[in-house]
Design brief:
This protein has about 350 residues and is of the alpha/beta class. Helices cover about 60% and strands about 15% of the residues. The strands form 2 sheets. Strands 3-2-1-4-5 form a 5-stranded parallel β-sheet. It has a 5-stranded mixed β-barrel with strand order 6-7-8-10-9.
């Protein structure tokens, strides 16, 4: 038996009895048949109790519970402190307001309590990071301040995007210690990953399954905590929009490979950790005139060019390298070009042949 059904029964009985009492009283005032009025009002009250009770009991309770589950510990503490401060201000104003002539002396203290309680909660929740930053580093308050700012004792927490999970390199990065805070995977990202894994297109299905395998590996091998979080943004359907709003509210960083998400997040002041940018940043730096060895594996676009790749995936375009196809070749760097797709190196054979 569900809780909602129990409350429906309670509402049915309670409003049914209230309807009977109201019907008896109205029948006495209007000289109408007492039994008829009692039965009619009792049935109407019972029906209203059966239908409307959940809308005043269980469903508001579920909505409040859902909202509380989505709030961080720092936001809950800020709301409680704001409520206390608002009620204290209302108490201080209650005495002068009670000296006003009625009905103002009876109504304004209640209105003041409601208004200042709402103001206290709103102000403290909206400015929680600024308020907690004052006490950061002091016991429990310092820990709550760290959470409110999207950080932990070890570092800043990050949100994983679906593209970063499917890419797979985040599992290797997490083992190196470059990410020092908690890695958070929202359930709506996990749901999108599962949807991709269940897709009819074999390519998408393989990408989704790879992402699930990477996530499992991440949980087992990461040097930092990896958590699946219930935090969500109500009323927003797009996963990218949810990530940006959630990161902005909680001051988290977003880990992604998505070009569009990267720029949208940066425009809204959200920190972005782009794995492609990290990979390009840690590639070996070669200056014009330096020597390196590369194996020519394909033809270039221009006549006589050959193309090879370094171990980190950097493309090396060698002038007059086509005739050394599938052979290791010592070359000299002539130019290094940085593009949005990565770094390209132009070179020529070291011996000039």
């Amino acid at each position: 038996m569900s809780v909602e059904f129990v409350f429906r029964l309670i509402g049915l009985v309670g409003l049914g009895i209230g309807g009977v009492v109201l019907g008896v009283q109205l029948s006495g005032a209007g000289n109408a048949p007492q039994d008829l009025w009692a039965v009619v009002f009792g049935l109407v009250g019972a029906l209203m109790g059966l239908i409307a009770t959940p809308f005043f009991t269980t469903r508001p309770a579920r909505a409040v519970r859902s909202m509380l589950m989505e709030m961080s510990a720092s936001a809950l503490v800020a709301a409680m402190v704001g409520l206390i401060v608002g009620l204290l201000v209302a108490v201080l104003l209650a005495f002068p307001l009670s000296l006003l002539p009625p009905p103002l002396s009876q109504v304004l203290p209640i209105v003041g309590a409601l208004v200042f309680a709402w103001l206290g909660i709103s102000i403290f929740v909206m400015r929680q990071r600024d308020i907690f930053s004052i006490f950061r580093g002091r016991g429990v308050t310092g820990r709550l301040a760290a959470e409110g700012a999207g950080t932990s004792n070890e570092g800043r927490s990050v949100l994983l995007d679906t593209s970063a999970i499917i890419d797979g390199r985040i599992a290797d990065i997490s083992r190196t210690g470059f990410i020092s805070g908690t890695i958070l995977v929202p359930k709506f990202v996990l749901a999108e990953l599962q949807h991709i894994a269940d897709a009819g297109d074999p390519l998408k299905r393989n990408r989704g399954r790879r992402g699930l395998d990477v996530l499992k590996r991440l949980q087992e091998e990461a040097a930092v905590p990896v958590r699946i979080t219930d935090m969500d943004i109500a009323g927003v359907r797009e996963v990218d929009d949810k990530l940006v709003i959630l990161a902005k509210q909680m001051n988290y960083a977003v880990v992604t490979n998505d070009y569009n998400l990267n720029h949208v997040a940066q425009l809204q002041g959200v920190s972005v950790l782009n794995i492609n940018e990290l990979a390009n940043a840690v590639k070996a730096v070669f200056l014009p005139g330096e020597a390196l060895n590369v194996t020519i594996i394909q033809e270039g676009k221009e006549l006589g060019q050959g193309v090879g790749y370094l171990d980190d995936g950097t493309m090396v375009v060698v002038d007059d390298g086509r005739r050394h196809m599938n052979q290791p070749l010592a070359v000299l760097v002539t130019k290094v070009l940085q593009t949005t797709a990565g770094r390209m190196i132009f070179a020529k054979p070291e011996n000039g042949r």
